Design the sequence.
């Protein structure tokens, strides 16, 4: 009986406690006025500012030597000796090949002998002409005889001049048997060996010399881009370099930056009809011979400076169904507004905005999924604000 009474009392106590808990919960819910409501969503924003930015454009190109010379013989003969190491640096005037000089030495000696004979004959005729000049004055010889001697003197003087020219030609040909470097630079492989027969002014070069310090970089730019640049300079959207030579930087084939800075030297005056592009040429120092002829590179050219550039991080820019770039901004009454913008080029992680934003606008970068157009939000500064780089690349 005592156990049964205890169980009854325990069940009754549990029922009373359960009822009290239910009543307490109902009172709390009534005091709160229903289920809890969400607060105003927070979004991270940046405030748009303007700053001067140097505009650049990246163009593909190839390197070419500053000077290029193909070595060819100017006289024919057998190569006795090659006097350089392939791939080495040579100096202008350095002897590269020695052609057998025997026949040219003999021709030079023969020409000198002919000159000596002509000079000896000239001495005799000149003395005779001097004597006849005195004799004709006293009528000891006729005028005709004096005229004949005078004409013979001029003929012998001409023979001496011809002989002197023959000596000079023979000496030049003899000198040409030593094939010399026309310029200083790095010489490539030799196409002939000792014992090879070469001919004067042959089509195939014996070797090629390239001067690679400094080195040219030839790049192409579309004519439309050149027109856009000139238009922007004319209307003041960007400022030029006040007549100074434009600076050029270089990216190598592996994507690394070339340590030396170059300058823009010339622009072609005509557009290539096949490609619609214009060739630009820049000059780079190349003291370590890092740049070789024919290498593919990308040149970064300075276009000018935009004084009031607006940069927006790419993470804050999306596209609408029409494909136009747009951002979400916090507008009047702290409500979200969609804004269509125009972007011209990327700058690392940023877009360069040409229209649609102004200084003071607040662009949403974080919490965009909560930012529905027309909804009220709480704007807080975004932690990582974009840095305005010193150079802009296309």
Sequence:
């Amino acid at each position: 009986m005592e156990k049964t009474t205890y169980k009854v009392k325990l069940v009754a106590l549990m029922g009373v406690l359960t009822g009290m808990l239910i009543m307490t919960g109902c009172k709390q819910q009534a005091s709160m006025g229903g289920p809890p409501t969400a607060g105003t969503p927070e979004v991270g924003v940046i405030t748009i500012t303007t700053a001067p930015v140097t505009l650049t454009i990246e163009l593909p190109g190839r390197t070419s030597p500053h000077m290029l010379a193909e070595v060819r013989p100017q006289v024919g003969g057998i190569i006795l000796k090659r006097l350089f190491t392939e791939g080495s640096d040579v100096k202008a005037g350095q002897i590269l090949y020695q052609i057998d000089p025997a026949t040219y030495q003999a021709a030079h000696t023969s020409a000198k002998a002919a000159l000596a004979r002509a000079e000896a004959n000239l001495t005799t005729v000149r003395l005779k002409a001097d004597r006849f000049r005195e004799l004709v004055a006293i009528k000891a010889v006729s005028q005709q005889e004096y005229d004949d001697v005078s004409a013979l003197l001029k003929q012998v003087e001409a023979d001496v001049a011809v002989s002197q020219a023959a000596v000079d030609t023979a000496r030049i040909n003899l000198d040409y048997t030593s094939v010399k470097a026309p310029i200083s630079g790095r010489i490539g492989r030799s196409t002939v060996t000792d014992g090879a027969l070469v001919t004067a002014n042959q089509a195939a070069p014996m070797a090629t010399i390239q001067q690679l310090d400094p080195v040219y970089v030839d790049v192409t730019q579309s004519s439309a881009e050149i027109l856009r640049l000139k238009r922007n300079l004319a209307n003041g959207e960007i400022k030029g370099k006040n007549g100074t030579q434009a600076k050029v930087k270089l990216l190598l084939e592996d994507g690394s930056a070339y340590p030396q800075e170059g300058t823009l030297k010339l622009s072609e005056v005509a557009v290539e009809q096949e490609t619609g592009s214009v060739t630009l040429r820049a000059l780079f120092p190349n003291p370590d011979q890092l740049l070789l002829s024919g290498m593919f590179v990308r040149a970064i050219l300075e276009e000018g400076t935009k004084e009031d550039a607006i940069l927006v991080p790419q993470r804050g820019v999306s596209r609408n169904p029409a494909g136009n770039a747009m951002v979400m901004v916090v507008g009047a009454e702290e409500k979200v507004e969609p804004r269509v913008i125009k972007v011209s080029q990327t700058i690392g992680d940023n877009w360069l905005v040409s229209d649609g934003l102004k200084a003071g606008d607040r662009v949403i970068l974080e919490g965009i999924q909560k930012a529905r157009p027309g909804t009220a939000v709480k704007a807080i500064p975004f932690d990582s604000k974009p840095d305005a780089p010193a150079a802009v690349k296309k």
